[in-house]
Amino acid sequence: xxxxxxxxxxxxxxxxxVALIGAGLAVLLVLRANLTDQAGLQAEVVARExxxxxxxxxxxxxxxxxxxxxHPVQVTDEDGRLVAVSKDLKAITGTGTDRxxxxxxxxxTSTRTxxxxxxxxxxxxxxxxxxxxxxxxxxxxxGEVSTDDPDFTNGTATVDGDTADxxxxxxxxxxxxxVTMTVHAGAPLATEQKAVGSVRGAMLIGLPVxxxxxxxxxxxxxxxxxxxxxxxxxxxxxxxASEDLSRRVPEPxxxxxxxxxxxxxxxxxxxxxxxxDRQRRFVADASHELRSPIASLRTxxxxxxxxxxxxxxxxxVTDTVRLQALAADLLLLARLxxxxxxxxxxxxxxxxxxxxxxxxxxxxxxxxxxxxxxxxLEVTGSRSQLARxxxxxxxxxxxxxxxxxxxxxxxERGSVVVAVxxxxxxxxxxxxxxIFERFVRLDxxxxxxxxxxxxxxxxxxxxxxxxxxxxxxxxxxxxxxxxELRLPARPDPGR
Length: 495
Known about the structure:
Blueprint (H helix, E strand, L loop, with lengths): L3 H52 L17 E4 L5 E4 L3 E4 L21 H6 L2 H4 L4 H5 L9 E2 L5 E9 L2 E13 L5 E9 L1 H53 L14 H50 L6 H25 L7 E4 H10 L8 E4 L7 E4 L1 H18 L4 E8 L2 E8 L25 H4 L4 H11 L3 E6 L5 E8 L7
Parallel strand pairs: 9-11
Antiparallel strand pairs: 1-2, 1-7, 3-5, 4-6, 5-6, 6-7, 8-10, 11-12, 12-14, 13-14
Helix pairs in contact: 1-5, 6-7, 7-11, 8-9, 9-11
């Protein structure tokens, strides 16, 4: 079952079915218990009425018994022998005895005397011992009916050939002569069975209908809720087929999870479109930048092959070096775009700047270095990449400076700041962010050999960001450009 709508409808139907079945069973059990208790109460009332007659010394053959079909009655003596029974009672179960014919050896009237009672166990029913027996609460006193809760049982009775289920109550009574008898009276359970059967039938009919309604409503509701998802899926499929990243998925007007999914999808498409466009421009610009040194080198080699005496070896070497540097820049940018993380080496930026400046022996303008007295100037990152930033900033300053280039290193509010300043023309404020874009050169009249490919500052800012730092440009006190590299300072564990 791969459909979300089908799974949702099935799950809701199963949950509702379990809930309804549990509730239905509870209702049936409670209803059955209540109706059974009512039948038991009716049986108890009938049993106590007959027991009251016995307590008033009404002879057993003259007992006023109720309608035997509604309330069958049995009366048994102390020995469990049947002494009275309802008329037309043909069979019975669930009481003290299943006999329906009184014993002929039992006297039909309560004519026993106190002396007879003493002979048959007076110690148990009369005389001085009555109080001890009454203390048990099981045998009522003479002329009284038991006040204890009756014993309830379920059974059947056959009256006039009709067999039905009954709830029986057993109540004891003691005659004035001291004879204790037990009355078993029943109340029919037909009402209970009919009510329970009606409720059960209604549930069996209503449950499937209810489940069908729940399944249908869940299906329709889920279908309506997932309709925007289908629109998003269809649009994404169309974008994949057409490769047109400028298209966007429809955003529903609701504020639910689906609307947030659509907005997030469009944001992802926007970022992907920008990334693809940036990659395309990068490839186009790289191809353009590579074409010039490759064409120049090829021309020189072809001329050298045809006229060896005209081969410009220094020019070929220069083009090769330029081509090598450009390839290295492109490779570094590709690694940065791929998400390469910097190293975790602990570096001293002051020492790094001194080392980079000392290696620049062929610069047009000497570089002045200003590093404060020994203090923690340590950062964490890749030595080669951070050295690349310093080198690119120095190359840019040398290219635009008139007479001076200065480098300083300091700490400021938890950061190590490397500043490179020159006294050149500076960077116009509207162009201060644009110069960090790839292949951007503000002075288009400058030759490629003199101006570079426009990748140095872009690489420097990308590397700075990978090190959780920033690279910005402002106006220097000398009137030129001032580039500031800020990197998080590494805490000194000795402090």
